[in-house]
């Protein structure tokens, strides 16, 4: 695939379909956070600082269950450790970018934009570092402003939504919508399976501590599956 003539616009366009996920997901977080007792400033501070729906919902659920703050922070960190793997995957593409651009890229990183950007880089290896950086920020320009704006909208209207409507069902639906497009290989599927099994097995733990344990187990399982596949591929190559 040839590199795009206008990388920023191309990134913006390629990430537009994810608006259908980001709008309800971020709005739901604002609603649920307000229902949990956070004020608008606290809701927005959490979204602006963290920018990670999965870990935000995890921390919020733990705080609602009365878990200590450090437990909620630990669980959110465990869920968000995938960002470290994303960062490592981007080093070959953005590692030579200016420090300020890399710092901003790290702050703005989200699942959808990362997946779109890496796919484009793999399809267009001849893109320069400057083009890759502009494409990346084009992706972020779709997701992040909508995340902030819809979180605020959800926080402002949260208390106005009748309790009998019960929006809790939308949380797992949003997680499924986020997760499904990312399951593109056997290690991904294996990690998802391990996380599901461990989460169910440890459902009785207090403060939902099964979630961080499941996240850690899934990352280990996925990494091990990747190593096994690479060793098998090397053996077959030497055969």
TrEMBL record:
Q: Which InterPro entries match?
A: Brnchd-chn_aa_trnsp_permease
Q: Which Pfam families match?
A: AzlC (PF03591)
- Chief localisation class: membrane
* GO BP of this protein: L-valine transmembrane transport
Is Cell membrane one of the keywords UniProt gives this record? Answer: yes
- Regions crossing the membrane: 15-34, 40-63, 95-114, 135-157, 189-207
**Record key words, sorted:** Cell membrane, Membrane, Transmembrane, Transmembrane helix, Transport
Judging by the UniProt lineage, the source's domain of life is: Bacteria
For membrane topology, the record states: Multi-pass membrane protein
| Cellular localisation | Cell membrane
Q: Which GO terms describe its cellular component?
A: plasma membrane
* Nucleotide-binding among keywords: no
Return the similarity comment.
Answer: Belongs to the AzlC family.
The name this protein goes by in its record: Branched-chain amino acid transporter AzlC
Whose protein is this, by species? Limimaricola cinnabarinus
Species classification: Bacteria, Pseudomonadati, Pseudomonadota, Alphaproteobacteria, Rhodobacterales
